[in-house]
Amino acid sequence: LLIALFQAVVAAFRKRNTSLALADCDYYHHRQLETVLVAPSSDFSYNTPVTTLSPFPMLNDIACYRCLNRACMIQDPQRELNPDGSASNPWSLCTVELVESLKALFRIFPMWSSGIMIFVTIGQFAFSILQTKTMDRHIFPQFEVPAASFSTFLIIASTIWLILYDRILVPLLSKYTGLREGLSPITRMGFGLVISCMSMALSAITESIRRQRAIEQGLEDDPKALVNMSAMWFVPQYALLGAAEAAHAVGQIEFYYSILPKSMASIAPAMYTIGTAVLGLVESILVSGVDWLISAGGKTSWLSSNINRGHLDYYFWLLTFMSVINFKIMMVCCTALLNNGPRNDGSNRLSHEAEGKQCDYRLLPES
User: Fold this and answer.
1) pTM assigned to the model
2) Which residues cross the membrane (predicted)?
3) What domains appear along the chain, each with residue ranges and CATH number?
């Protein structure tokens, strides 16, 4: 499938100089036999029968991806088509279905990129190991939680959130929203991003308190000394982040399933996994960049190995700010996504009517 999608991109590029003026004529598009999709999205008039519309409603009337329609335009039937109707060269001509699949993949990229930030916030909790090692981790006098095991609270919070949402919130919310799943996938993604912002802000506040107490206790130059403060202060931020990850992850995957065609169903969970893979690269660049920028001129880095002299709280505030900006970007993407439907002002109409029009291949430019 990935090779086929790449072939569609190459085909569209090779036909980049082809005019789209006649693209609303169904006979100029290469399509599979017995398919209900006979024309690519945005290349039809408002009087076009329903069978010519894209089966992916959110793709209809999107002019920004119209250039990809060139990939399925037939310029020379004798040269580009085999006797059985298949494309003689898939790198020059592809089907309408493949073009629509490619558009669907491009459509989810903005929403997918907005989810990377929540993975970055999860990755930054590696610093919590350094923090909790300097704090009292006892739950009971005889039981001490290992510093690296505090991420367990994140998993527990994620599990609890999924159970509460599925068994309690969905039945209640469905009565008001009319949606079987309670909230739409986009709403759940936004909710997850908001909770992640709150989690990072709470992390910054907690670290500020921890650092201040360490300085007051004369431990500024001893990063391994124990601060008289319970490590359980970190549990709320882990709980918030766990709920954020659960809400965003489920909403993100369901959003992919709602946009992508059935032939690309396997890509939905793969896109989520790719986001976790990109986390390592983004996190490395972010940490290295902040450390280099702040430590310039011999200054103490926010991410100093001595966390009592550094300012992890400033770094967490930076992540909070980035998370807020990321949420704003997601809102812009959602607005563009939901406003791409047909408008009544006729601005998306094409000058040519496809319905009932007889096409003449001689009108097409020579290849």
Assistant:
1) 0.76
2) 111-131, 143-165, 185-205, 270-294, 314-338
3) 1-16+56-94 (no CATH), 109-340 (1.20.1250.20)
